[in-house]
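# step 3/5: fold
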Amino acid sequence: MSGSSDREARKEERLRTEEAAEAQRRQQRIKLASAIAFLAVAAVAILIVVSQNQSSGGDSGNLQAVAEVEEELQGIPQDGMVLGQPGAEVAALEFADLQCPVCKAYSEQVLPQIVETQVRTGEAKLDFRAYTIIDADSVPAAAAAIAAGEQGKGWNFVEIFYRNQGLERSGYVTDDFLTAVAEAAGVPNLEKWDRTRKSKAVLAEVEDSTKEAQDLGFTGTPSFAVEGPGTNGLEAIGTPNSAGALEASIAAATK
């Protein structure tokens, strides 16, 4: 009788254990399904936002955020495609494609904090380098920015371009669009800018900086590298996931 009771007790205990384990597995499956659903919804939302932002741009006759860009950059020295005090100890190089929607998002959501906290204060300078990976239109866009930089308006051009970026590979990067951006950026001599952007020297610079990005191991845009007293030469840091992460990399390069 005692042996039979023990067996029944062990059986009941085993059943309770199996039921508890199955309940735990059900909860895990529910949580996983919920997480997958959340990520799917988030991904769709991001695609919708990117699509809306891109499709609303590319209009040479209706450029947006010109005054906003002017205010953001007001009072900060520019030398070519370098934004910041010439004596800043740290240089942060951004390798970007003007047609890249992620680069646009960085220009609007990440870099403004860096500009205010580290560039405007003289701690660091930002150096825009062309990395033309989208399509053939990325080359004249980059050349136009560099030509604007030769007249002290490179970053104004870049930022206004991003604020008015059209749908990727839609053909919006026309001479009319580039000229409108240059004019809105305040390029003093548009005729000179037009000649410069088509010059062999500027087109070679675009090609060289694209090769530099590839040599650093970058496969996407925007990608960053930093150089300063705390680095061993130019150090690739990839694509920081937040303004705080990029800020921390720049701060570490000062030590």
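# step 4/5: annotate
The chain has two domains: 1-55, 60-252.
# step 5/5: archive (pending)
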